[in-house]
Design goal:
The structure is a single chain. By secondary structure, the chain is mostly beta strands. 11% of the residues lie in helices and 31% in strands. The longest helix is centred in the middle third of the chain and has 13 residues. The radius of gyration is 18 Å and the shape is globular.
Length: 284
């Protein structure tokens, strides 16, 4: 098994970018989800509530800044607010973050149609992985939801797309939560694995074998599996067109549901810092 792609998401809920290699820090890949979006009260805003966030992309620039691009190609450079006074934020176990300057907040607010603020996590070592999400003492994470990294498998994605095609003419399972789907449409082509917002994509092995791994070594870096990832409405939004639909939640609810949730991919915590790259060998 080998790594086929690496991806970081510099701003939480915005589109990610592919990288050929990445430093592995205790809280995730370097440059991944250290920025987030909040409202005026500090309540976090994600693409679950505001799908339009997925239409923005961000790339890291030196000294922890980001360059944000909107859907028409306009860009804005945001420098890390290292000297700003912290503000309260609602990200669990985070407490506070540093706000971007007013010009950056205005640029993004105009495009989203509501007042928002960009905030930067200046010290990721303070945010622990929740015990209920498989966290162990001393493990930390960025502004990601529940774990430092997400790994998905191309073999598992091929199986999911095969199920979607085979189940196209079947009725929805009766108790599927409508809030987990963003529209009535069904796909006309195989879904992209990017819908699951992975940091690491691998190929090789049997579908869903990754869920059996208590630990995995990628290149020379060891990781511990903290949990299998439960999936939400964000996966039903096309990452390119932003069109909503039923899949993959509709099919996951038939084949991959337990405890009232659907599951795809695994969350990892590094047990050591290091460096990984596309092409690295994956050993379970």
């Amino acid at each position: 098994m080998r790594v086929t792609s690496l991806r970081i998401y510099p701003v939480k809920s915005m589109a990610g970018i592919d990288v050929d290699e990445a430093d592995v820090e205790p809280w995730g890949l370097a440059g991944d989800r250290r920025w987030g979006v909040v409202d005026e009260s500090g309540t976090k805003i994600t693409a679950r509530e505001m799908h339009a966030l997925l239409g923005f992309s961000a790339e890291p620039i030196p000294k922890h800044g980001v360059r944000i691009r909107d859907r028409v190609g306009q860009t804005f450079v945001v420098e890390s607010p290292s000297t700003a006074a912290s503000v309260l934020v609602s990200h669990k176990r985070q407490g506070s973050a540093l706000p971007a300057n007013d010009r950056a907040n205005s640029w993004l607010s105009v495009r989203l149609g509501r007042p928002v603020r960009l905030v930067w996590q200046d010290d990721p070592s303070i945010r622990s992985i929740a015990e209920r999400d498989g966290g162990a003492p001393g493990e930390t994470l960025s502004l990601a939801d529940a774990g430092p990294l997400l790994l998905t498998s191309e073999a598992s994605m091929r199986q999911l797309n095969a199920w979607i095609l085979a189940d196209a003419d079947t009725a929805d399972v009766p108790d599927i939560d409508p809030d987990d789907m963003s529209g009535p449409a069904l796909p006309t082509a195989p879904l992209s694995i990017l819908r699951f917002r992975p940091n690491i994509v691998i190929d090789g092995g049997e579908p869903f074998v990754e869920e059996t791994w208590p630990a995995v070594t990628i290149g020379d870096v060891q990781f511990r599996t903290t949990m299998i990832c439960d999936r939400c409405v964000m996966t039903t939004i096309d990452p390119i067109t932003l069109a909503g639909g039923k899949e993959p939640i509709r099919t996951l609810a038939r084949h991959r549901r337990r405890d009232g949730k659907t599951w795809f991919g695994i969350r990892l915590a590094p047990t050591q810092p290091g460096h990984i790259k596309v092409g690295d060998t994956v050993r379970a």
